[in-house]
Amino acid sequence: QGRREARQWVTGFTVQTSLDGITWVPVQCGVEFEANRDQNTKVRTIFRRPVKARYVRILPTRYYNWVSMRAGVLTCERKCEKGELQYPFRGNFMSATKGPNLDAPWGEGNWDRWDSLGYRFYRGQGLIVDESRCINPSNWTVLVKARFDQTHGWRKLFGSDTWGWDGLYINQQFQMMPKSSMMKCNERILPNTYYNFMMSRGAGGMVNLYLNGYKCSWGVPPFHQGFKPSPTSLEFFHGPNHQHSAGYVKRIAVWDRVLSDEECATESECKLAEVASQCNSTVTLIPPYSRMKVSSYHHHPRPGSQCNAGRLGSSSAWCPRHRDKSEWIEIDVGFVHRIAGVVTQGRRNYHQWVTSYKAMVSKDGVRWFDVQCGTVFQANRNRNTKVANLFDKAVIGRYIRLFPQSWYGFPSMRMGALICEKPCQQGVLDYQLLDDLESQTMGPELLPVGGMNQFSLDWGYRVYHNRGLMLNSLGCVDKQGAYTVLIKVRFDFVGGWRRILNSRGWGDNGLYLRNGLLTLNPRDVQQCAEYIYPRRYYKI
């Protein structure tokens, strides 16, 4: 090519080659080759026969206005290694595993000077490769590590000339066109953020989509023979006029086989957490502050106060020192168990809440693993509403950390862990109610009705007017109706009717305190003679 920013170009040249950079040999006995006639058109010169060399020199013989030129070398394509094409974008379009180069037929973008961002492509540009000598179109996997300037609207990611404008797109989510393919990943794609997008196509047209190494969609779409690509054309980023993409790409890889889920996670640098069988039911774990850690907090308050109050239902929240995505809050479940998800709230006393987060788990607090390969979970939209996120599969761990990724006002949050319910021990449920609503003998948790109240190590759990506790005891209590209940309680007032125990199907009947006397309703069925005094503890 000529000089891009001025009307200068070379119109003729000769070529010399060398094996060692010392001894030089003219190509075709020094014949003069015709070159450019304008600034930017690429002119290819093919020798009559290939020459073997390491170094190539171009010697201009004629020019227009000035000796200015841009040049590249055409090398003979080598067979790709291990049925792979690996393009690391280190200043060129060559594959690190040999095979064909990528081409930029719609115009070439820019290379990041420091290789930190990769190759810059603009709207209307794109890349293409003839993979026919390396890849079997029936069984293959492709990976694109890229980031997009805009993620609203349809942005082409990957396709083939036989698919028309169908293929992989970004439109706030990673998905396949046409929409009737019914293949879409739930996670929201953010602009100016790198993602590892992967697709595999196997026997029978089974297609899998992976985001950052996590399989997020799969199926057998009935289009283009199960999205079997053209044997001579894989295209990246180039779509219809209004669906072109712009951004950066750091890596493109193509394999001549279907990678396993584990291999996809590894290629995307994901350390995937160990998964477990799904829960039949879950328990919301809200541990004491002695089993919670944070990366930092404002003002060094004592646990449970001000900005160090990250327990679900607390009077404030955890507020990290900085607005930073590396800050975290951690819960210790107490033992290695199946963790099914998390529950979060915003800051109770300020308009601050986390709108999205990532999660990691660990068995020992030292080695940490991504939940769903770093999936960004959508979280709260106000201060106090509890938002539960169940993982696709329960994961094995003792510790779970949340990393705020976006927030309103400030990354303040409260959290609890959803763990798989364990069977109660020996048919007993025992709730101490000193700092949580969990049973000491496993089984289901107590659920607050009308809102969560405060705990006290001295007084237990505080219950206010029109609030209470509920329990689903199925699986622990004798289905034939034989059971015993003990409640250690004290009352602020003992006058009138005060309900103590009720069950669905009883209506208004149940165990009551009536004017200081323990009574079964309907009235006078059974009644204890001893008078119950206010503000004294009794075991009922």
Automatic annotation (TrEMBL):
<dbReference type="Pfam" id="PF00754">
    <property type="entry name" value="F5_F8_type_C"/>
</dbReference>
<feature type="domain" description="F5/8 type C">
    <location>
        <begin position="1"/>
        <end position="76"/>
    </location>
</feature>
<dbReference type="InterPro" id="IPR000421">
    <property type="entry name" value="FA58C"/>
</dbReference>
<dbReference type="InterPro" id="IPR013320">
    <property type="entry name" value="ConA-like_dom_sf"/>
</dbReference>
<feature type="domain" description="F5/8 type C">
    <location>
        <begin position="270"/>
        <end position="420"/>
    </location>
</feature>
<dbReference type="InterPro" id="IPR008979">
    <property type="entry name" value="Galactose-bd-like_sf"/>
</dbReference>
<protein>
    <recommendedName>
        <fullName>F5/8 type C domain-containing protein</fullName>
    </recommendedName>
</protein>
